[in-house]
Structures are given as structure tokens and as C-alpha cells.
Amino acid sequence: MPSPDSAPEPAPASRRSKITPERAQELYAAVLELLRESGYESLTMEGVASRTRCGKSTLYRQWGSKPELVVAALRGTRRMRLPNIDTGTLAGDLLAAARAIGEASGRDTPLMHALSHAALQSPELLSALREALIMPEIAAIDSMVRRGQERGEIAADLPAAEFVAAQLLGVMRARPLLEGRYADAAYLTRFVEKAILPGLGLAAGTPQS
Fold first, then answer.
1. pLDDT digit string (tens) for 156-203?
2. d(Cα 207, Cα 204) in Å, to the nearest integer?
3. Are 203 and 91 in contact (CB under 8 A)?
4. CA-CA distance, 131 to 143, in Å (whole number)?
């Protein structure tokens, strides 16, 4: 017998809805909050309907199923966590990025953990997760590294340069598993100072060339 979250209720052929963009954002925020609290497997359309005081039939009519709703929530709440960071030096940029990522780690890390297993089973969910939480940060950090290369702070062919984003974002996810604590701003700042900058031949506070 299909579960209520895998088989939508009967609905009109058209999914046109009167849900406003503002209301959609409220629903998306509730979906992400429930994911952080209980994980993907425990998320239900009934739970979202109860949390948001929205009819379950409305959710099914608009999104069809739990996976579709989660994908919409991820894509509909995409934001740039590292906006306009350009301090004039690569060291300064990476330290500013560490602070920004660390300040958001308490929200984003539980969401990543909640969705990781399910995303491996669903290409669409994995794509949405990467689009919403991973690729924007990788692109921003890679841009910082390229600017540093263009300014001559590091060599254009420095082998360590390609691993900066993987180091910074990877340790954010790994620390809760290794130490039971989020990689907050203070921890990530130390990580950049002690692990990433030395590998690039830089030091915190390196003056602009």
C-alpha cells in the first residue's frame, strides 16, 4: 500500500494555485525547519500542513509529493552565503568566508545531514541540494582564489589552490561527526589560519601586493 507521501491525493490535472510567493516562502521555511528537527524520513506532508496551518490537499495540489516539495523548498530559498566578499587580499577573503560560513553552520549543517542519505537515492534532490547549499559557496571561494592568483599573491599553478573550497566546506560538515560540535566561526577562522593559509604560502594579515 503506497504511503501518503509517495502517492499524492487525487487532484485536478492543473496544479495552478492561489499560493502567493510570500506564502510559498513560509511553507519552504517550515519544510527546512522540520528537516533540521527530525530528518528527511520523518518529514511528512501532514507535518508540514500542521506546522503551517495549510491544507494537506493544497500541498499535494501544488507540489504533488514530499520529494517535490523538498526540492522546491531548497531551490526556492537559495541564497548567497558569501555575498560581495572582496577584502583586497586572499587571506582576508578566506577569513571573512570562514566567519560567514561558521555563523550559518548551526542552520546549514543539520540540513545537509538530514538530506544527505536521501539525496544519494534521488538525483533531483541531490541536484537541488548542490544548487542551494554547495555550489554557490564553491563558486564564491574559487573566485576568491582566482583573484588572489591574478593579484600575484599565489602562483597560478599552485597545486593547493584547487582544494581550498573542499577544505573549508568539508571541515564544516566533518567536525560534527568527529567532535560532536558545529564548525563555528571561531573554529573555521583557526582552520583557515593554521591549515589553509600555510598551504597557500600565506599568513593571516598578508598585505595586499
1. 999 999 999 999 999 998 999 899 999 999 999 999 999 999 999 998
2. 9
3. yes
4. 17
